[in-house]
Amino acid sequence: VQLQASGGGLVQAGGSLTLSCAASGRTSSRNALAWFRQVPGKEREFVAAITWVGNINYADSMKGRFTISNDNVKNTVYLRMSSLEPEDTAVYYCAAGRTTFGVIGTMPRQYDYWGQGTQVTVSS
Length: 124
Prior knowledge:
Layout: E1 2-6, E2 9-12, E3 17-24, E4 32-38, E5 45-51, E6 56-58, E7 66-71, E8 76-81, E9 90-97, E10 111-114, E11 118-123
Parallel strand pairs: 2-11
Antiparallel strand pairs: 1-3, 3-8, 4-5, 4-9, 5-6, 7-8, 9-10, 9-11
């Protein structure tokens, strides 16, 4: 599975941004696509994940501001981020993995394919 993340950039606090993650290759081998983010010196943090059939899991701190969605025809997952704060500044990664007994994973080790990351910078 190959993942191509895009859509990052510079945005002012309070603004919005939509990230995209295009999946290609044997996408049927992995049924969950997730977004993680990472800042230097910190561990990679789970943001949200969605399965191809539309089951969703959000990190508690992202609920209400971030929305994940998918387009099965385009094999693309989106992350709509609103009310952005400087603390949201990070490199955002998309990842592909499998659910475990239907449960969407929230740990990086549960995902075995990763995109290259896209930088999101929120200015105050």
